[in-house]
Amino acid sequence: xxxxxxANMLTTIFHDPAHLLQTTIAFILFTTEWYHIxxxxxxxxxxxMLPRKDLVRIRLYFLFDLLSVFCSSFLFTxxxxxxxxxxxxxxxxxxxxxxxxxxxxxxxxxxxxxxLKTNLRNRWELDSIFGTAFDIMVHICMTYYLGQYLNVVQxxxxxxxxxxxxxxxxxxxxxxxxxxxxxxAWVQKRxxxxxxxxxDVVPSWIFGRAGDSGNENKS
Length: 219
Prior knowledge:
By secondary structure, this protein is mainly α. The protein has one domain (about 5-219). Helices cover about 65% and strands about 0% of the residues. Helix 2 (about 15-45) runs antiparallel to helix 7, helix 2 (about 15-45) packs across helix 8 and helix 4 packs parallel to helix 7. The chain is globular. The protein starts with 6 loop residues before the first helix and ends with a helix.
């Protein structure tokens, strides 16, 4: 899949502006797609998550996610456009109806630290799980085709950048990302799990009996 650079390849890269531009774009898209893969995987396996109040504020991330796949598929590789359309429809829905509809609120809740502090944490939300897994799969497919334009050194540099970014942004002390089993005190203060049982925030039809039990606890 990936090629080791040789003299001819290096000569082409530095003496052919079009090839240099193509490689640069592939490198940027490849790096972006791998960042998405890591981010979604950490949430899917409950390794790093955000408080709900912070998650609500990053609505633009869904647009960024949509555009990265659109550019990778439609504008660059020309591969798997049908898959990119499904991905775009999924993310466009969440971007447009963010914090407005039941399904949009549900994915926000499920992806948040607050969710794991409620009696809902042991539920298998299959739509959210499969939706996130689908998202990861789409990004993996994009990296496969983008990788055809890069050599081993470029791929290694890209993955190194991604790893550094993940460690700084998602594992660093600068933002509210935290491990659900070891939440810092200042992040704990940003949680409001009781609101997840409030029908004004989460429509009761989403949680069914769990919503009813939440109302009983209030009384």
